[in-house]
Structure formats: structure tokens, C-alpha cells
Amino acid sequence: MEISRRASVFFFSLCLFLSTSLSIENYHQAFPIVEPDPNHTKLRLSREGLEAISRITTPIAAVAVIGPYRSGKSFLLNQLLSLSCYEGFGVGHMRDTKTKGIWVWGTPLELDIDGVKTSIIYLDTEGFESVGKSNVYDDRIFALATVMSSVLIYNLPETGQDVAFEPSKLLWLIQRDFLQGKSVKEMVDEALKHVPNEDGQGNKNIDQVNQIRDSLAIMGDNSTAFSLPQPHLMRTKLCDLKDEDLDSTYVARRDQLKKLVASILRPKLVQGKALNGKEFIAFLEQILDALNKGEIPSTGSLVEVFNKDIVERCVKLYNERMVKLRLPITEESLQRFHETAHDEAIKAFDAQHFGRQHAKKSVDQLDEQMQEVYKNIVLANEYQSSKLCEALYTKCEDDMDHLQALRLPSMAKFNAGFVYCNQTFEHQCVGPSKHNYEQKLTKMMGKARLLFIKEYNNRLFNWLVAFALVMVVVGRFIIKFILLEMAAWILFIFLETYTRMFWTAESLYYNPVWHFIVGTWETLVYSPVLDLDRWAIPIVCIIALCVLYWRCYGRKKHGYSWLLPMYNNQKNGRNRERSE
User: Fold this and answer.
1) What is the pLDDT of residue 506?
2) What's the fold here for domain 30-197+204-298?
3) Nearest Cα to 283, choosing from 567, 556, 26, 33?
4) What is the pLDDT of residue 271?
5) Calculated CA dihedral for residues 242, 149, 136, 159, nearest 10 degrees
6) How many CB atoms sit inside 10 A of residue 47's CB?
């Protein structure tokens, strides 16, 4: 018994292996392309349908029909294919009602679209169980059919939506006997209303139907409504009737429907590229994998899943544009860069995302992520601005301290340093921290100027007194120049005696004579050509060397001839001849 059971299993496995390894010879039939797994929790691809599609080398455009179970989807597809029920998709009792998933007609129709030879494939989908209810995978079948198709025909009330691929055109096909005196638009609007769900915590199946209806509403701007009367009153005999036996109005409207479908058909695009058979299968595998991994409940959610990668790429694009900025920059410039990069990222998203008009959640998510990046860049700009302005402020502070401690006080040099510091700060300090540091710098430099002016006159007075004494010594003992000594004595007496007799120390600084002395001092000490504070020591050393040279060698060569009166220290008795 055990041996017999094992043999049966082996034989069944061998038959299954052989059946899947042999190529399909007759493609003029319908093949399953997507079917549920045994547990009816996930979808999987079927080899026969994939083989039928993979052999297509031209761009593909898919027409899918969805709708309630036994609503005439298969019959409609056969009509569009100009096939009888015995040739095309199985209709009613002719097809196993337990078959699930999506089926494809194995022989595509050829159509010239905008000068491009295009293969049109037709997809039949598993019907919804009943109005107001949904199987656990109905929404996935619906979502998959939506993203696969170029034209999605909804054969009665509820339907689907639109990553980087072109969304399908939604064609509402309302059979005449369901209109009940309403217009097509009224029927569509009614079909999109939510099913009340007040059963305690809510019925999950009804929630799923409402999600599908929400997804259909998203496709509103990309949809077309079309009414089609019943072909014949004897609906169970439709497969046995020829065109001449069908209602003439139905035949005319059916032909119009064919033309309408052909007019809105476009090749399936992924990131702007039309797909051939093998590329279409790869795309289908990607979609199915996302559906199964995410357990996506509606086409609206599927949009967000596929748009997720595009959102990430657009955020990366925005980030790449923003990181090129050399911080810090002004807040206005940063805002302009942000708006430019933001618009570029939005345009990139609009060019790629699933659905040209919609995907609001993805757009909101993209904007939120870009705003988060922008906030970080704003913080980085504030930090870099603060760091730069702090360094410039510190340098100005050090420069002011250095100017306060000049060996030879010079108002001109202080003013030049003051202006240079202001200009350097104004040009180099940028960003949001500039205003605060400008105020801080203004206070600091104002105090530095007041302190310098307060100390300037006192220091200059002391320097002039010391200078006068030095010149007295130089004129008397070194170069022995009488006029220099006399001028130095006059300056010393003026500063120490005359000023104390006639002026107070403070009134001296407002006297014209003092202003003349200050002007002369400023001219000698600092100019754009010569900074005496920097070169004083080298100049003094050079003069000292010259004087020393003259003292040692100059007199021997040139004697004592001077144009100006000099001291004559030669003793008369030194060269006097001795008397006998």
C-alpha cells in the first residue's frame, strides 16, 4: 500500500515536471498569469501566462477588465477580441468558477500607436464576490490589474488607480439595465460612495471595499464613462448568438467602445520607457513582490509603496543640490536655493511617480522629507555663520587691542584699522548670525574708539616731551647741531612750562597750536607709504649707523665744513705752537 502511494506521488510529480517543462505550442487561448497561493494569502506568477507574454518583442499595451463576479467581463473581452465564447475567455459555466487570479489572452493584437507597432494584450480578472464585500485578495487583484494595464475597464460599480510608470486609463462601462434612469455620471458617483460600516468595530471586508472606492476616486481625472446596453434579453444564450442576432444598438455601441479603447491605448511606460514582453514580466514581478511583502490593501497604498523609491531618489536629488552650497550664506540666498532645489525635486517626482495627477501622500511625504533636510541645512548655516562671524569679531577685537598698544600713537592708523575691520566684517560675515554680531561689534568698537581717543592725547603729550629731551641730547652731544638742540629745547619748554602757565591740560587739546603739532606728528608717524610705528626701530638703527660712520670717518675725509652752525669742541691749545 505504501509502495503504491509513493509510486502515485512520483508519477504525479513527473507529470507535473513534464507539463511545466514543455513549451506552449498553441497560444490562441487564455492562460493564467497571476494566481493565489494555496492559502489564498499571497499572489504568485503562472508559467503559462509568462511564456505567452515573454515572446512579445514590441511595446506592450494592456487592456484589463475588472468588476463583480459574473458581471460579463469575459464576454466583454471576447467581444473586444472579436472571438466567440468557445474560442476566447471562458464564460459562465464554461470556466471553472474556482479559478482565481488574472488571465491573459495568449495572442496579442497588433496596433499602430503614434507610428509605433504595439502589441495589445487583454487581461481578465477574478470578479469581486458581491457588492459591499471583498475577498482578502480581491483588492490585490484589483491593484495589480490597475498598475499592469494601459486601459482599465471597470464593468460596474467599484475600481482602482495609478511609480515611475504611466497610469492606466480608467473606462467606466455601465450596462444599460443597471442605470435605472440615471446618467452615467450619476451612476459613477453613486458607485464611489462609501458602504456604511457601523458593525461594532467595523467589518474589515467593507473597509477594503471602501479603500478600493477611494482608490477609484483618485483616478477620477483620468477616467472616461461609457454606457453599453444589454446585447440580448436571453443572457444565457449569448454565446450561441451571432452579431446579427444581437441588439443593433448594442452592436453599434460595442464598435464605438472598440474605437474608444483603441484611441486611449498607449504603450505601458516605466520611467518613460515602453516595455516589451520580458521587460513587462520583470515589471510584473517587481509589483507582485511589493504586494506580497507589504500586504498592500488598496491601490492607493500601492501607489505609495511604488512611489517610495521615487520619493527617496527625489529627496536625494534635493540633498545633492543643497549640499553643494558653501555655507554660510545669507538667509535669502538659502531660501532661493531651497525653492529651486525643491521645485526641481517636485518636477522630477511629477515626471516619474505613479499617477500624473495624484499621489498626494507621496507628495506630502516628499515635501516633509525635504523640509527636514532643509531644517538641518538651516541649522548648519546658522552654526557656520556664527562660527565665521565669531572668528571675524575676535580678530577685530584683537586688532583694536593692538591699536590701543601702539608704540607711537596715531589716530590715522587707528582710524584706518577701524575702517578696515568694519569693511572686512561687513563683506565676510554672512548668514543669520550677522545681525547679532554687527550689534556686538558696533558696541565693542565704539568703546575701543572712546578709549583710544581718551588715551591718545596723553600718550602723544608724553611722547613729545620724551622726543624733545632726546633731540636735545642728540643735538648737543651726538651730531652737535645747535639749531636742532634749540628747537628741541623750545618744544620741551612749550610743553612743560608754557602749557602749564596758560592752559589747563584739557584745554591744550583744543588749542590750534596743539592741533598743528598733532597734524605734524600724524604726518610723520603714519601714512599709506610709511608706518613709523612699524619701521621706527630699523630707521633709528640706520640713522645711528650713519651718524657713527660720520663721526668716525666722515670728518677725516670732509673736514669740518658745515653749512649750519655746529659746536666746535676743538681745544685751542691742542694745536698751538710751543714758544721757545
Assistant:
1) 62
2) Rossmann fold (3.40.50)
3) 33
4) 74
5) -80
6) 14
